[in-house]
């Protein structure tokens, strides 16, 4: 099969970035940038503080003191090791902000504060780091979260593949009880906020050197504004999950297993972009198992499902939202899909992942 | 100079560890353990959950919902990339718990919750991971903190050097106002909680293949019980810092710079173990710049200094505490030491670190 597509070149142009003094003397990361001495201080003063600027970070202590609003909080962390570091629609920087924000909002929390911990490879271009950090800062500003504490380590050339980032986040619950897998009930409706597999197939296509006529682009986005609208519209948003590694099928398998209920999808109802479907065909993948970084799946009480779906479709982050299945009393702990020919197939939890280093 | 010492062999014996089924089929980490599918689930169910067991973690959601006591919080993160993974007196596991607890307690906070994010190298022995995780769990239990959320990624063989760990922590302030560099005042006394350089020289000696008659051992420890006792004894504990990377000299330089005051140390007052002093001589290092992982430096109002020092010495974590200097109005922003011969030397912020990958 001929590949028909052009993956858009990565937007970041290192030549456009002007390196502030005194880092001009160090166009690349050296071991000393992780040593806690004056090189570390220069990195913080010239790269991190200007990008993340906020009063909490200014204190420059080992930890940051915060005043939280009253209420229960959500706490989460993720490591990001995506390869390559930049891809159409985003970079490791946006992923590191959006991914942790989304983990928080899947518990019904509004993300407030993030920590950012960098493991840098000796030899990483300073311009590349600056571009990643700027993209993180922009993503955080747009998501309304503050990066208030951090750390940098440097490892020898050959390790860490340029840059690994770990973020942790604190959010405040927007609704009680918090959405949780155990709250799923027989009869609930399964909604998804948009097309499946965009992030995963973008990174995979880039790595496999595939090009398509339609541009593939990561869907990386912070979903809490959408979650806020959904929770305001209904108190029957029982479960929320962002189907990242392992895709929709993995998230729904986990929900089926924790809730000890069955989930049945309608295969024809699943929204998948034609370019993603083509890429999946070429690479022999199932979009239901491909990673997303700006989509959520919701399990909602039947009586409120239409209202929640309308609210999702009215929101920029849920324009292609769809009703894709329901929670059933049969085949408990199992996810099945009714195919376009009326047959039912089991969608098992896969062993690993189709392609690693996707996020 | 002859080296006179024997670094104790690492305590962990992989053969003692019994691998639970079904991980027996995977004696080493494979890429699929980071894929979010059933291999990831096995790793979580057999390694992480049994070790970290607590009700918050049981929810197994992407984020964990917590109820915090009233009051301001501290938030911190650190990445741990120490090489080798095990050393006399500890491992990357203890460091990952103690280090982040200490960052919190240096803001006067009692650590409550940690996140733990693992970046594992394909091929890492499952037994090694299990040993690290068990040591983390033990360190957390002893420190009274709970590891409530986490993440695991796997990167290809050759990256990540076995295992990198990033922890983030949330603590609750034990005193207001929180200790902070800006609170230092002329006349304040500088106290240190014990001997300097133990952690750094242990790891360095191990890497350099040095052996000494006296066993060198990392001082890795969670310091908040000591901090709690100090804050209860005085409201004039103005600044706290744990002198990790870059050692005491780096921490005090940072305090001098942020507070725009001078700091003068008495070199003869600095507590250093003979074995550490020997190792420093052999390797050409200054113990004032060597990393500690279980020591703190405190800047305390003169009128309370003796009382705080007594409280420190009465505590198991501060038995060798000493009064080592004072905050002065001269040479603002600079750290100096009065030598044993009565001369004064400047201790500058170093460029990098004497040896990387120490924590």
Written description of the protein model:
Chain A is α+β, with helices and mostly antiparallel strands and 359 residues long. Chain A has two domains: 19-173, 2-Layer Sandwich (60s Ribosomal Protein L30, Chain: A); 181-346, PurM-like C-terminal domain (Phosphoribosyl-aminoimidazole Synthetase, Chain A, domain 2, Alpha-Beta Complex). Chain A has nine helices and 14 strands. The first copy, chain A, has helices spanning 38-52, 55-58, 92-105, 126-143, 198-208, 224-233, 247-259, 274-283, 302-313; strands at residues 64-66, 73-80, 86-87, 90-91, 109-121, 146-155, 163-173, 189-192, 237-241, 262-266, 297-300, 322-328, 335-338, 344-346. Chain A has a seven-stranded mixed β-sheet. In chain A, strands 2-7-5-6 form a four-stranded mixed β-sheet. In chain A, strands 3-4 form a two-stranded antiparallel ribbon. In chain A, strand 5 (109-121), helix 4 (126-143) and strand 6 (146-155) form a beta-alpha-beta unit. In chain A, helix 1 (38-52) runs parallel beside helix 4 (126-143). Chain A is globular. Chains A and B meet through helix 1, strand 1, strand 2, helix 3 and strand 5 of A and helix 1, strand 1, strand 2, helix 3 and strand 5 of B.
Helical percent range of chain A? 25-40%
Q: Name the chain pair whose interface involves the most residues.
A: A-B, 82 and 82 residues
Q: How many separate domains make up the residues of chain A?
A: 2
CATH architecture annotation name of the largest domain in chain A: Alpha-Beta Complex
What structural class is derived from the secondary structure elements of chain A?
Answer: alpha+beta
Mean pLDDT value of chain A? 91
The arrangement of helices and strands of chain A along the chain is: HHEEEEHEHEEEHHEHEHEHEEE
Multimer state: homodimer
Amino- and carboxy-terminal Cα gap of chain A: 28 Å
**Radius of gyration of chain A using CA atoms only:** 21 Å
Low-confidence stretches of chain A: 1-12
Shape of chain A: globular
* β-strand amount of chain A: 15-25%
Strand order, sheet with most strands of chain A: 9-11-8-12-10-13-14
Q: Tell me the number of helical segments of chain A per DSSP (H or I, 4 or more residues long).
A: 9
Q: CATH fold name of the largest domain in chain A, please?
A: Phosphoribosyl-aminoimidazole Synthetase, Chain A, domain 2
DSSP strand count of chain A: 14
**CATH superfamily caption of the largest domain in chain A:** PurM-like C-terminal domain
- Which CATH C-level class of the largest domain in chain A is it? Alpha Beta
| Main sheet makeup of chain A | 7 strands, mixed
């Amino acid at each position: 099969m001929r590949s028909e597509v052009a993956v858009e070149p990565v937007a970041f142009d290192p030549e456009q970035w002007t390196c502030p003094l005194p880092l001009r003397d160090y166009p690349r990361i050296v071991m000393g940038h992780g040593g806690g001495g004056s090189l570390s201080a220069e990195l913080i003063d010239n790269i991190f503080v200007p990008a993340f600027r906020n009063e909490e970070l200014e204190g420059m202590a080992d930890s940051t003191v915060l005043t939280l609003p009253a209420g229960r909080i959500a706490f989460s962390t993720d490591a990001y090791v995506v390869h390559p570091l930049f891809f159409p629609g985003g970079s490791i920087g946006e992923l590191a902000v959006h991914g942790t924000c989304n983990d928080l909002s899947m518990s019904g929390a509004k993300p407030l504060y993030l920590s950012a911990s960098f493991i840098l490879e000796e030899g990483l271009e300073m311009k590349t780091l600056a571009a990643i950090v700027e993209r993180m800062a922009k993503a955080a500003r747009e998501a309304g979260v503050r990066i208030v504490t951090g750390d940098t380590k440097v490892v020898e050339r050959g390790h860490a593949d340029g840059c690994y980032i770990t973020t942790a986040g604190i959010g405040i619950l927007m609704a009680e009880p918090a959405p949780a897998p155990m709250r799923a009930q027989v009869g609930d409706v399964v909604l998804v906020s948009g097309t499946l597999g965009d992030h995963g197939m973008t990174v995979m296509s880039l790595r496999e050197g595939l090009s398509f006529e339609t541009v593939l682009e990561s869907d990386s986005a912070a979903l809490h504004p959408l979650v806020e609208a959904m929770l305001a519209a209904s108190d029957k948003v029982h479960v929320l999950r962002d189907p990242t590694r392992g895709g929709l099928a993995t998230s729904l398998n986990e929900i089926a297993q924790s809730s000890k209920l069955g989930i049945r999808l309608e295969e024809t109802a699943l929204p998948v972009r034609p370019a993603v479907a083509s890429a999946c065909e070429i690479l022999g993948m199932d979009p239901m198992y491909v990673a997303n970084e700006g989509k959520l799946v919701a399990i909602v009480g039947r009586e409120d499902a239409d209202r929640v779906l309308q609210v999702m479709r009215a929101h920029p982050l849920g324009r292609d939202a769809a009703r894709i299945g329901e929670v059933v009393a049969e085949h408990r702990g199992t996810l099945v899909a009714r195919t376009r020919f009326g047959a039912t197939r089991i969608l098992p939890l896969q062993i690993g992942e189709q392609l690693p280093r996707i996020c």
